[in-house]
Amino acid sequence: SLDSKIRFFEGCFKYKPVIAAPNITFDVDIVDNTFGILDTKRTIVRTVSPTNFGTALDVMVFGDSYVEDGWIATELFRILRLDGYTVNEIGTRSGVLAGTTTTKLEGRSGWTWANYKNNDSVGARTNAFRFNGALDFNQYLTANGLTRPSHVAINLGPNDAGNAVTLYSDTYLDTVITTAKDFLNAMLTAWPTTKIILTTPSPGGLRFQ
Asked: Where does the pLDDT of residue 5 fall: very low under 50, low under 70, confident under 90, or very high at 90 and above?
């Protein structure tokens, strides 16, 4: 049977489908902080034949250490190319892990939404989106000889949450959300036709008031 049960805050499995076995079914448990099961839902992932879209995409992936590692962008680009897309990778940096060092991206370990919006640099990492003390996404393209992205995938958020012990107030969360909105609005003003895919993953055990 392909049925599996996942009972982890953070975990994953890989499944390579074949058309002869088109679907994978698994149960997802919602648990409390003692791993007591609060609810269970069954999910079916359906496999379909690859579709060759034959479309060119200009894709930027940016965020924190999860992006800087290189695997998120590398895997995304691999999947898009398997689907027949021609992918132009947009970025001034490359992945740092083996197998990703030729992947173009905008990843900076430890960075937050506030860092990307307000800081010219943090430690040894400079902010490619800021010029003369302000965000300037079109100057970012001009200065680096890059094409405006058709799609931007953003993986950012865990560093805004800090650790898994502190209780964060609504006021703090409102500040993080406002900062993220300001950044995204500036990007969309400069690149109005760009499609943004936003993920804000949280580490296991994250706590809010």
From this structure: very low
Characterize 64-100 residue by residue with b for buried, 16 or more Cβ atoms within 10 angstroms of its Cβ, and e for exposed. Answer: bebbbbbebbbebbeebeeeebebbbbbbbbbeeeeb
- 74-126 pLDDT, tens per residue? 999 998 998 889 999 999 999 999 889 999 999 999 999 999 999 999 989 99
Indicate the pTM of the whole model. 0.74
Tokens of 160: 């805004």
**Residue 47, exposed/middle/buried by CB under 10 A (0-12, 13-18, 19+)?**
middle
